[in-house]
Amino acid sequence: MSFIVRLFFIFFYGLLPAASSMADNGREAAIAIERAVASCRGDQQCEAAARKREISVAEKQQQREAADNALKASDPGAYYLTLLGRFLTAFAFIGGAAGLYVLVMHLLFGKRKRRPKNQTDLPD
Q1: What is the pLDDT of residue 96?
Q2: In whole angstroms, what is the distance from residue 79 CA to residue 84 CA?
Q3: Where are its TM segments located (predicted)?
Q4: This prediction's pTM
């Protein structure tokens, strides 16, 4: 149980920086690109691939935000239904992972028949 709680905290503490980075896309995108490039340690091919990947991610995020803003402006009900769908999808994914974890743990360490230590405990 404590393992699941730890994963829960790691998951949500991991999302906090991502949520705060949505506030300032331009500066955060530039910082993300520089971090990715710094991890290449001077390899030109790696740097080019990292820049391309990070720029693509930033463009997709901007497109999604623009689409969300347009949908919110035109039909707020559809926008909130879309958000609800995203949250339900995330919840289903997390629930499925937790269910898979429980299933595996049950199969690995499931119910084993225990024998009484004393044979005198058995009914006559």
Answers
A1: 96
A2: 9
A3: 87-109
A4: 0.53
